[in-house]
Model the fold of this input.
Amino acid sequence: MSLQRLRLAKNEDKRLRSGHLWIYSNEVDTTATPLRNFSAGEQVVVENQQGKVMGVAYVNPQSLICARMMTNDERPVDLNTLKKRIKSALALREQLFDQPCYRLIYGESDLLPGLVVDRFGDHLCVQLNTAGMDAMRDVVIEALVRMLQPTSILLRNDASVRKLEGLPLEVVTAYGEVPEEVELIENGVRFLAPLAAGQKTGWFYDQRPNREWLRNIVPGKRVLDVFSYVGSFGVQAAVFGADDVWCADISESALDMVHKNAELNGVADKLSTVQGDAFTTLKSLKEADERFDVIIVDPPAFIKRKKDQKEGMLAYRRINEMAMRLLNDGGFLISGSCSMHMPREELLDLVRASARHIDRHAQILAEGMQGMDHPVHSAIPETRYLKAVLSRISRA
Done:
């Protein structure tokens, strides 16, 4: 299999030599190798301006990130390459977790850019987020089947990032018979997650270590879980000893799952749900003079693009202030952000500023990031996206 060459412009190989995997369209010598000559998803040999081979990448002329590196030699990426990468990713997770419930493959960090795989025991949920990975879908599925012998594989190819790659949105069964719900265990707590109908891959494993904070702060307390989804924080709070837990979410189906998960763990009597927009719900709770000892605010990304920065920061600031107003004196707030474009320092400053604005004192007790099944690529800071802050809020 002979691959075309993609030549970099002068001095544009520095990031790749440091280990980064992305090539932007303005880094290509388009005179020597016009991008229009390549097909979306095609594998190419990347070379620098002097003709030195940097490795094999797949390309997409339609994308700002026009190529993503896969290897550091000239051999095409094939089934054996994928099996080797999956084996390495699996070995790490099996060492870290005693249950087969984790993010098995986290894209660039596992040297499989554009591929996300979440494992729920014998069931896999897969995202092919780039044209290059989508072009390899049959080989990806074959590699996963050979390595893990799963009962089913669902392709959740409905992430908006696929639009940027010129790919259709779809949710399809790739292997076996996919159940509507899968069971998982996190921090010793059992959950059911909706695969095809849920958010993203059906579950958010990334917050696992930050949910563990609840174990020490919720016993005997009243807890509010905002943006609760299927109760990942709220149900764990109830299991960890909270007396009264409220889960708030805009999705009726998600709240139905909250009740199912509470029943699954024998804590249904501790748990209530509130359906509605988070901002409206917090306002109503304040008007009703409700108070809580622990509040979790883990919203979806308010800053999806850099141009959303100002508006998104205002939304984060507003939701955290509203939560603080509902806390009893000395209560605990867990503030989360999955916005890649929001640095951790800004979340810390936001918690501080929000507290000062309503005449409260914030003590930062812990900072968190995504769990170890979402490893950070040392040369790609964008792979570290999740931030979480545990603070104690008291009257100044």
In short: The two ends are 69 Å apart (CA to CA). The mean pLDDT is 96.
